[in-house]
Design a protein that fits this description.
Strand content: 25-35%
Largest sheet: 7 strands, mixed
Strand order of the largest sheet: 2-1-3-4-12-11-10
Bound molecules: glutamine
């Protein structure tokens, strides 16, 4: 794999720009992915935050859902934040009628598990595998999901460490897939994106 991989950000709905900026400072070249041709041109993909049910509908309308599943199944590394985590989950609690996902992560996620927009919050999180792991990462949670259950092939890399939601799983990874309930792209801290770039380089 190239030392500066090209990483696409799925740009059909949600917070695209922030991920592009984060990739810029994490050793990758970021680019928008809206079409099959653009998907075929990237080494890896980020699925951003937004609204998973809308993203799913648009992905199917634009005939991107099957290509996304095929790319994932053939080993393309993917990272999903918040709604992106829901898109990468094999099972969704609280899905709207007929909601589908790209899948691939053997996890069950619960949508809006921390509550609605007014219950958005920030908290320090310890994340396994990032640079300076003992230095807490600022986790920003906005109508975020949490992981209800993770299968054996899935490594839990982050949990809430205190407060009413202590112990909730908010970060997971497998060989090629990674997902966070929170939004690392909304901080100036590149360590989660750096970890993904490293996964892409090693893939
Ligand atoms: N609650 C949203 C969903 O279910 C995710 C919110 C977010 O991405 N900030 O898709």
């Amino acid at each position: 794999m190239l030392s500066v991989p090209t990483i696409g950000v799925l740009a059909i709905q949600g917070g695209v720009r922030e991920h592009l900026l984060a990739l810029d400072i994490s050793g990758a070249r970021g680019t928008l992915v809206k079409t099959l041709g653009e998907l075929n041109g990237v080494d890896a993909l980020i699925i951003p935050g937004g609204e998973s049910s809308t993203m799913d509908k648009l992905a199917r309308t634009f005939e991107l859902m099957e290509p996304l599943r095929e790319a994932r199944a053939s080993g393309m590394p993917m990272f999903g934040s918040c709604a992106g985590m829901i898109m990468l989950a094999d099972r969704i609690v609280g899905a709207i009628e007929g909601q589908e996902s790209v899948g691939g992560l053997d996890i069950t996620v619960e949508r809006n598990a921390f509550g609605g927009q007014t219950q958005s919050f920030e908290t320090g999180i310890v994340i396994d595998g990032i640079r300076d792991p003992e230095h807490e990462f600022e986790g920003i949670f906005i109508r975020a999901p949490w992981v209800v259950a993770a299968g054996e092939s899935t490594e839990v890399i982050a949990k809430i460490s205190s407060g009413p939601h202590e112990g909730r799983i908010v970060g997971v990874r497998s060989d090629t897939l990674m997902a966070t309930s929170f939004h690392p792209e909304l901080t100036a801290d590149p360590r989660v994106h750096e970890l993904f770039v490293e996964m892409v380089r090693n893939s």
